[in-house]
Amino acid sequence: MRTAKISRKTAETNISVEVNLDGTGTYDCQTGVGFFDHMLDQLSRHSLIDITARAQGDLHIDDHHTVEDVGIALGQALAQALGDKKGIRRYGECHLAMDDAQVRCALDLSARPFLICNLDLPTAKIGSFDTELVQEFFQALATHGGITLHIDRLHGFNSHHIAEAAFKAVARALRVAVEVDPRKADAIPSTKGAL
Fold first, then answer.
1. pLDDT tens profile 93-129
2. What is the 8-class DSSP label of residue 159?
3. What is the pTM assigned to this prediction?
């Protein structure tokens, strides 16, 4: 089973994340940040990666540490569950439409973290959620998951739709990338022989 559990405790947060790469998209995410939980649910449901997340954070300050640290833990869990990455497809991409928003994601499970995030969310808040935290989450996920991650807004004027389309596009790209390729299930997908 390609599963992992990560616990992370700091003076700011107490996080636990569990993933199953070969799941069905079952989710149970409780971080204390409502909009973020909704986005994590989308990430799980559309990637078919089972995700359980628990977070206690310093929400009396703001949501930043909680969102970032969940991204760190989730990235670490993905990397651990992938192991040596033998047999995976490695690359994934998706163009995803959601009402007014269209977001494109391309990613590589390369062990070379890099984020390009061109979402340009038009409002500072979605409800009480700071929209700048969308990029903070993806930065933490990419860095600690060893993911080259490109996310671009092609269209859109509603911040909720753009953010949700981004999480869903990343999910669909991850779904492809973590799948085992039946034509090369016994090989590392790199001419280097390692990722």
1. 999 999 999 999 999 999 999 999 999 999 999 999 9
2. H
3. 0.98
